[in-house]
Amino acid sequence: MPKNADLSRELIVQAKRTPQRQWLSEVSAVPLQQALRDLDQAWRAHQDSRAGKRQGAKVGAPRFKSRRDRTQSARFTANARWKITDQGKLSLPKIGEVKVKWSRSLPSSPSSVTVVKDAADRYFASFVVQTDDAPLPATENEVGIDLGLSHFAVLSDGTKVDNPRFLRRAERKLRKAQRALSRKSKGSNNRAKARLGVARAHARVADCRREFHHQLSTTIVRENQAVYVEDLCVKGLGRTKLAKSVHDAGWSAFVHMLEYKAARYGRAFARVDRFLASSQTCHVCWVVDGPKPLHVRQWACRACQTIHDRDVNASRIVLAAGRKLAPGREAES
Ligand SMILES: [Zn+2]
């Protein structure tokens, strides 16, 4: 594997002297070096993954980036001499001062800033800051969560959370923009405009969804001492007929938020085995009642006769199974 210093000499210092790569000297050298660092890390991850020295999903080899990619980013570290001015502007090397619409105040002085341009031609500045999160006051509540298609989530206390209306409205606009794009002829100016329209609609849907996930995950973590979710194997579902709705629901992003927020605020979090058959098992007597097709929304347990709402029952099974996993707790069933 080539050394970072050698790559830097060849791909940055030498390249700047060629007419084809001269544009590299028009930008700060720090993001270029950061790109090499990212590349180095990506190769290491790929090699460790191939050698079996890395847990989790297989990591592929890094792919080429282009200055024409739809999404672009540049990271400025502390030694890049960037700063936030007294007027609240962002001053970047070789770019100058740019106006910032701050979405929140920074809790401490940032160590680096990444400027991202997304496919909808919007610019974002994202800062790395130190935070000291205090655990939330303890509570007795625990929750099991069933993520489903008929509702976004069903909680073991019986709460059913639908996809919010603003999200559905944004999705309708996205479909309209996509239809408009498909009618434009290739290579035309109108097509380029329509493409940006689709990108903007996509960005809006993604923003709405992220906002919804943030609000819901914060509420759940704040109100519960322990959070249990069925491990969905989203990758497996992604290859089936349910694929589109699965990606739309963005479950894995949501579960990830639950996980890191639980860690941040001192809450317990666990994924429960997806082979638990939560939709077939009675949460009262734990008799497995046999498979139920998706259209069966309600069923009566053949052993104890309890009538179950399919999704609420599933989330109670997740809760009970999570409690069994949790250390220092007696099994309750
Ligand atoms: Zn039963």
TrEMBL record:
Residues 47-72 are annotated as: Disordered. Keywords: DNA recombination, DNA-binding, Transposition. InterPro entries: Cas12f1-like_TNB, RNA-guided_DNA_endo/Transpos, Transposase. Residues 128-237 form the Probable transposase IS891/IS1136/IS1341 domain. The lineage of its organism: Bacteria, Bacillati, Actinomycetota, Actinomycetes, Streptosporangiales. It comes from the Bacteria. Residues 251-316 form the Cas12f1-like TNB domain. In the N-terminal section; belongs to the transposase 2 family. In the C-terminal section; belongs to the transposase 35 family. It holds the Pfam family Cas12f1-like_TNB. This is Transposase.
